[in-house]
Fold:
Amino acid sequence: MADQSRQQQLTRKLHDQDQDQWQLLAPSSSAAGQTGKFLTAGAAGITLLMLSGLTLTGTVMALIMATPVLVLFSPVLVPAAIVLLLTAAGLVFSGGCGMAAILAFSWMYKNVSSYVAAKKRGNPYGQFAQIGL
Structure:
């Protein structure tokens, strides 16, 4: 009986220690902790908002300055862009056809090699072995 009560005391002590450790690991719900979180999130949000505004302003200014150059060179740039687009499309298409050919040859090789192996395994059985493709 004494052993059982001693074991219960040890179990309660360990349980209390576990609860204390979990309380240390739990997030703080105090007003100071929440205020710190709010201020940190606010500062990060304001900083990112300012950076996005600066980026937008810089982009619009660059577009305003580049517009006359684009209009001036558009007789050259538009055909050049079309040629580059067609060249890139041709390269992508040829690469896709090459990949399709490799996959087709791979499939044919696997199919034929498994057919030959199955036929070799079926030879001892004569005509009783059927191979379906």
Observations:
- Helices lie at 2-25, 31-122.
